[in-house]
Amino acid sequence: MLEVLAAEAVRVMTPGVTAATGYGARRIWQLVRGRSSRPPSDRTALQAWILRRAREDETFAAQLAQELVAVDTVDAIAVLAPAMFADRTEIRERIQGPGLWVIAGARGSGKTALARQIAYDLRDRVNAYAEVDLGDFRDGESLRLIEVQQAVLRQLGVPHVDDTAPVVDDQYRRALRHRKFTLILDNVIGEREAAGLAYPWEHATVLVTTRVLSQDLRVWNTGDTIVLAGVDEDGAREILAARCDEAMLAAEPGATRELIRLCDGLPTVLAQAGARLARRRGRPDAVAEMVEQFAGATGPLVDDLIRRSVAELPVDGLESIVDHPGTDLTDAGVSALLGQPGEELVDALIDAALMFRGPGGRLSLLWSVRRAVRADDAGFLRFLGWFRDMAGAADLAMDPAGVTDRVRHGRLRRYPAPPELGWPERRLRPVDWLQNEAHVVLDLLREAHHRGHHVEVVQICGALEALLTVHGHHLVCLAANEWGIAGAEVLGWRPAVARLHAMQGRIQMLLGHLDRADVSLSTAETLVAALGDRQLESSVLEFRARWAQESARGGAAGRLTLAETSLRTAIAIDQELSDGRARGLHLRMLANVLVDAGRGGEALALLADVTAPAGDGRNLARLHLVRARAHLALRDAAAAAEDLRRARELTTDSGATQYELELADLRAQVALAYGDVEQARRWWGWVAYRHFLAGHPRQREFAARLNQLPPGP
């Protein structure tokens, strides 16, 4: 046996042996030479020298046998790079040598192209390459396994492939054991097919692609699993530009980004879009037109790909969830759309790479799927009702039972309150759930309005007051309330229209848009005057007072007097209505105005009898903040520091996040009162920067404060 081995080695090393093609000869020469002196050049002497070494060194003999087996098929390398390939750099860098990888993805995601690109990347590290599409070897659900094995063996150059099933299977496992090759098994279905074709060959790189990463395939695969989502934006642009004109994309950057999003970053879909754009070269707004078209349908080829993928799903219900608002949703949202637990459908969609999990475990369904599948209207109605109830629970949770006399019928809800809901989320407070879903709200309200569900629109807008109070999200609430106003006007709910206009004025005031706030508040004042709703009148007076206070801070003369007058009128109405909660809030706000007017002593005296409702940590924190401001006005730094400390504790405990800037401002003032200029500079600098980013006019105020500080060290 060793004599044959030595003779074959000499034959391969001899110049002119075609099979070696230089590559195999070099590797064997390197092995034979090793670290010793140069072997004999005479063929007979060289063969004897190799034989002697093989007898003395079993490791050398085994390595030589392996190299000779590999060189038999070194001329089989014929892998070519895909004609057009983009992105996937991180995946390609992970696959640098032998091993087993499962690549999963929906039709059109580029699984096969990626596998071929990897094979091309590894072309200089292997001696052979084979690729088989298992779809060519199936009869229905039955795979002709032996024929696949024979095809692989022949592509890898194994001689004398047998025709008998047991012998072929044995050849497949044993003959490939020491060979260095890349094998692509395309379109594998399930563990049974994979296990019969992908063995842990020590020197082989095996790439298994599948459209469905089923449970049994997940269990079987002990190697690396790669699930393909879309290519990144740069890769997507490259695919588009290869088929149209880069100048077209550069001329419409926003439309190009939206087109990429609508294409899900799928190479096949992007290629279709690029080819269609090529026909529109020279037309203005060609990409924007394509976006409008893709929002409805991507074309027969892409739609066919998606429908075939959907048809293979093992569970029903997709038509109930494709119409969900927004770009993503939670598992609970899927269940709401279905009207039953959605875990099985979610698992099936993830296995088929038609749905992906993103940050926080949220689920994103491919836009291609959402376009291709006809929606079930009942799913949207279930989702809308579920969202309304969850948002309503967040709103109601702001008024815990026993804390206020306005539970369910208070907080100026000028619309039917949603039904009470036992809170189902163990890890999230209701208002924090609402914050997580804030990005869904506008899509939901727009769709609900156009479908005529105006009651739910108004109820959700009302519930957003809780979000605004605790976490801000001013722009979301501002846009949402426009839908609420439109819905309330359709319903003829004039008190709700007045309340929403007042809320718009409050939000615009908080954003520093005082002119717009004035218009909204004037509209609300006119509506309220015609309604005779005293509680609503008190609330609008509160918002007008805050507008006047902010106007005064901007330099408007006489506005602090208007703020004080408005709040005293509101307090009188509160007393008339025996509304203790509103009276306490308005007394605290009046004290804040008095501090701005330089009347800190009066403010503290006014606050002496003001208490926040039991259990209402957020409002208690606000009370301490006003007290801190009053103490600072009276130059009592220690008392101010203590009230500020308590306010920070209560704010943190309540989970409120929208008071960060006010807290930072007071921290700067307290630091300055203690002579710590650098700490004051740090906090005011942060506040000024945040106002600058938001385009808020108070940025100038804090910039001026910074300029008044003495120079730093």
Automatic annotation (TrEMBL):
Domain NB-ARC: 97-212
InterPro entries (UniProt xref): NB-ARC, P-loop_NTPase, TPR-like_helical_dom_sf
Matching Pfam families: NB-ARC
Domain of life: Bacteria
Gene3D superfamilies: P-loop containing nucleotide triphosphate hydrolases (3.40.50.300), Tetratricopeptide repeat domain (1.25.40.10)
GO MF annotation: an example: ADP binding
Protein name: NB-ARC domain-containing protein
UniProt organism field: Actinoplanes lobatus
